[in-house]
Design brief:
Length: about 120
């Protein structure tokens, strides 16, 4: 858990990086049935739960299909909370439409290789 928190807090880490199969850290946490890590990843400011893998599956769809009940609950709760947020809380526009014009270096880590 400390490793996940440390990576999330590093300014150059992009939690939405996808591997060759389109999997994100969230997809891997669901696939390996780590609901605690799913919860922790969802606390990330810029986590994108709508990213799909090469099978056109979001992390939630994978959790449902693979019978990861606890992960399903966590992801569904997160989705409900996102829907309740008002545009004012998001800075007057949906966060998915906001773009950071600063150039940043991004550290890409193979989350599938992490042993948790």
């Amino acid at each position: 858990m400390d490793l996940v928190a440390a990576l999330m807090n590093h300014p150059g880490i992009d939690l939405n990086v996808q591997d060759k199969g389109g999997n994100t850290a969230l997809h891997h946490a669901v696939a390996n049935n780590h609901p605690t890590i799913v919860s922790q990843l969802l606390m990330g400011k810029n986590i994108n739960t709508s990213l799909k893998d090469c099978n056109n599956e979001t992390a939630l769809k994978r959790a449902i299909d693979w019978g990861r009940a606890e992960c399903v609950k966590i992801l569904q709760k997160h989705e409900r909370l996102l829907k309740k947020r008002s545009p004012e809380e998001e800075g007057g526009e949906k966060s998915s439409k906001r773009r950071n014009t600063k150039t940043q270096s991004v550290i890409k880590l193979p989350f599938s290789k992490l042993k948790l």
